[in-house]
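Run log, item B.
One chain of 163 residues. Sequence copied directly from the ordering sheet:
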Amino acid sequence: MGANRHCTDCDDDTVGCCGVPARRGGCDVCHPPNQGETHYVGDDCPGAHREEAKSGFKFDSEKLRFDLIPPYALEQLAKVYTHGAAKYGDVNYLRGMTYRRILAALMRHVEAYRAGESIDPDSGLPHMAHVAWQAFTLMVYENEDIGEDNRKMEVSNEPEETE
């Protein structure tokens, strides 16, 4: 890594070999108490013992891990999208539907699966892939403000009039 920088007041190292502020005695100018993590310089510094990677590196710890999505599940979901496009037209679902209609379809697939049926007889695809499609559609609807959010059932507290 880079060379250590020295404090002009105490001639102590202010940055350890790994780039983290060092603490080796020194003065309160370069090493104020309780200022970040304490590392030591030289061979005592944990950063001094890092192995160099044989290939390049990339800072991606904060990025989404699409590689964690199982390919089989993603493929089945794509098949449901493809089946829907063939049956209703490409992205027809983006024209909007009521949330309850989508939830009803989702629940039908869940109940068929719960009853022991793994494959939807209409599409020949897994019921759980259809459930995923319904869930994805609801996420898109919420995010894009598509469809009618009628999840909450309105119940009137007014008594019905009788003649």
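Observations after the first pass:
- The chain has two domains: 1-48, 66-144.
- Residues 45-51 have pLDDT under 50 and may be disordered.
Flagged for discussion on Thursday.
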